[in-house]
Every structure is written in structure tokens, then in C-alpha cells.
Amino acid sequence: MKSIQMVDLRTQYDCIKSEVDHAIQQVLSSTAFINGPDVKQFAEELAHYTGANHVIPCANGTDALQIAMMALDFEPGAEVIVPAFTYVATVEVISLLGLRPRFVDVLSDTFELDPESLEKVVNPKVVGIVPVHLFGQCSNMEFILNFAQKYDLKVIEDTAQAIGAVYTFSDGRKSQAGTMGAVGTTSFFPSKNLGCYGDGGAMFTNDSELAEKLRIIANHGQRKKYYHESIGVNSRLDTLQAAILRIKLKHLDKYSASRNEVADRYDQAFLDHPNIKTPKRAANSTHVFHQYTVQVEGYAREELKNYLQEKGVPTMVYYPVPLHLQQAYVQYGNQEGDFPVAESLCKKVLSLPIHTEMEKDQQDYIIETIKSFFRQ
Questions:
Q1: How confident is the model at residue 71 (pLDDT cuts 50, 70, 90)?
Q2: Whether pTM exceeds 0.85
Q3: Over 90: is that where the pLDDT of 373 sits?
Q4: Are 338 and 107 in contact (CB under 8 A)?
Q5: At what angle do helices 360-375 and 252-269 cross, to 10 degrees?
Q6: What is the dihedral of CA 56, 57, 62, 63, to 10 degrees?
């Protein structure tokens, strides 16, 4: 059996090596390293895949969030609702722009933002909501969009972990993650479901005027070179990464199906297990399983994590500390006990290896090793 990886990028690359190598060589031969043809072509292909009217590539997922908030004209001092249980980038850009995060709790089974908590924090200063489609499935977007419309709030979807997931509305309409709010954002970090071989990101919108604004801000605030209409940033997807992403986009549905096969086997293996709580799949969203995250019940998670490491099974904790208790963000006045679900999850969650090339014998070993821990 091969050694087990959390994400086996090497084996994935080996499977598409000839396609990727050819794409890279084409860029090297053209020497169009910045804003080459592949960047525009990738944006068009990703727009076609997601159904978004506009895709604006940028340098990374954090930039995508920042540029989105800049384009929506959020003023310093305004407040943005964000879940307490997510990666730091989501709240980082809020603080960097002089905005104030309004944390809310999450659901204990799907890990998504708790819609019922929104009424508790809405106030005249709140201008937006950032639902994070955590671990690979969509938040309850129908509720969130209706709530946002009621209070005239902008919705920025953080789709860094859920590209390719599909949300179904109560009337039967289907939309891809990232295409439902005012702006959707994503990351192409190598370990993502659609990942490049460096940094990369993109923004989605169906609003043509907003799309142009996003493009201008991402390009130093200029529409025409050396003529700067607004304060902007330098954030672009380089041509090599775009060329790689064009290849990997063709395989994205296959990758999602492979991840679901691995998740199905985990689900079955730990069905009714007293110490392993498997992740719930939301009824109105498909799941692309960027992570397969369980909750460890009745035992100290670190004991299981260390045991698995000793047996050659890597695991990760996403995330060990909720955002409102991180040293950088305690300034906003929250304290322990404010968001009990997020705080509890940080003590229990454990993400197991899941990737597109996982072999059955590897997964069987992972499952048996976990079960053996609880039989000791």
C-alpha cells in the first residue's frame, strides 16, 4: 500500500501529466506570462461551467473577498456578518478594510452558517453577509438571500471549498455555489477541488456593471493603462496557472464524483458508530467534499489524531480555534461562550484523508485503524 496523503497531488498530476505539461509548454513558448490568452479563456470556460455571467480571475481567494467588498462600496465602520467557524481569510479582509465582523454561530451537523442566528445580529450598521460554503456544500442560500433582501444587505459567497456544488431552491431552480449572491469568490490553492500549482482565485457575478468594477479594482483601479479611476490593487491570475486550471476544469466533475465515492464509504463504515459523528449532507445542496470532517465523541480528539499519526494516517483539524477567540479578533468584544456550537466543533472536528485518487486499500486501512483505536 502506498503511503497515505491528505491530498495526493502527485498522483493526480501523474494522471493528467501529458495534458498539463503540454499546456505549460504552450505558455512557455508564447512567453505571455501575464494576462496571456489562457486567462481570458479560462474565465470564459469557468463562467460556462458555473453559469455565472462573469468570472473575474485574481491572484488568490483572499484577494477575491477583499476586492468584492471594495467593489460593493462597504464603508469603514460598517459591519459584515460572518460565521465564527471558518478559515481566517473570511474575517481578515473585513478587518483590513476597516469594517467590523459580526460573528454568528454555525449548525452542528452541516457546519454551515446558522440562518436562525441572523436576526440576532442585524442592525443598521450591517451591510453584508458572507456565507461560507464550508467543506464542500452550500449554506441555506434561499433563507440567506431572502433575509438579505429584507434588510437590503449584499451577499458575498465564500466558495473556496465548494466549487461545483449545486444548490436547489424550493421552486426547483438550481444554481452553482458562488453564483447566487452579489459576488461569489473562490480560491485555486493547490489542495482545492479545482486547484492550480501555485496561488489563484476568482470572483463570480451576474451583474455586468459590478463585474467591470471588480476588474478595474483588481487592475490597479484602471480600465485604461495609466488612467486610474479608483483605488485598486494588483491581483491577477498568471497565465501558467490559468493554463493548468483549464485542464483541471475538464476533470472537475470526475474529481467531485471520486470524492463522493470516498465519502460514501466513510459514511457506511461509521454508520451508527458511537464515537464518530459523520458530516450531514444538506438536503438542498450537492456536496463536493473538499474535506470529510467527522466529530469525535466521548474521547479526546487529540488522542485519536496522535494514534492515527503513529499508524501512518494523516489528519487535519479545521479549525482548532473559532475566529471570535483568535487573538487578532478578540478586539471585537466577543468572549468564550458566545458561539457554543463553533466552540464545541473546534474541540471535536477531525478531517480524514480524502482526494481524487484514493485507493480502496488505503481507505480500508484508515477505517480499520480508526475503529481499532476505540477497541483498545
A1: very high
A2: yes
A3: yes
A4: no
A5: 30
A6: -70
